[in-house]
Amino acid sequence: MSNLFMPVTPDVEAERERPSPDRVISGDPAFTTWLLEDRDGLYCGIWESTPGAWRVSYDEWEYCRILSGHSILTEEGGTPVELRAGDSFILRPGFQGIWEVVETTRKDFVIRL
Questions:
Q1: CA–CA distance from 99 to each of 11, 29, 35 (Å)?
Q2: By the 8 A CB rule, do 46 and 106 touch?
Q3: Separation CA 95–CA 64 (nearest Å)
Q4: Where are the domains of the chain?
Q5: Which helix (H) or strand (E) holds 33?
Q6: Residue 98: what pLDDT?
Q7: Distance from C-alpha of 85 to C-alpha of 96, rounded to nearest angstrom
Q8: Burial class (CB in 10 A: 0-12, 13-18, 19+), 28
Q9: 41 Cβ partners below 8 Å, 6+ apart?
Q10: Which of these CATH numbers, 2.60.120.10, 2.40.10.10, 3.40.50.300, 1.10.1040.10, describes 15-112?
């Protein structure tokens, strides 16, 4: 297989983590990330979280597409946005708010530093 093509499936080893306890608002969210690309300030992969809510703060650009589940993303001072399979969006550097996973959510993502 060419090194210019990579299938987008979580066949790589998963990384598991949780948000910092001081950011958790409710529940006990646990993250699983399959990092498919990590080079030159570009990160791509698949991310999944179990239910819970936590504060988020972005210093980078991120494009996301929800593959499954249900989440609610609320920008600080903004209106909650329901996210479900098929929804895609961009988070810009400086975005702050709350990510709430209502039903285990899986997304694919591209982060550019």
A1: 26, 10, 20
A2: yes
A3: 14
A4: 15-112
A5: strand 31-39
A6: 98
A7: 23
A8: exposed
A9: 112, 113
A10: 2.60.120.10
pTM here?
0.90
CA distance 84 to 67: 8
Beta strand 61-75 with 15-17: parallel, antiparallel or unpaired? unpaired
Give the sign of the dihedral formed by CA 69, CA 87, CA 13, CA 112: negative
Q: Of 92, 93, 57, 51, which Cα lies nearest the Cα of 72? A: 51
- Evaluate if residue 5 carries a pLDDT over 60: no
Residue 59's region, left for phi above 0, alpha for psi from -120 to 50, else beta, is alpha
- Indicate the SS3 state at residue 77: coil
pLDDT range class, residue 8, cuts 50, 70, 90: low
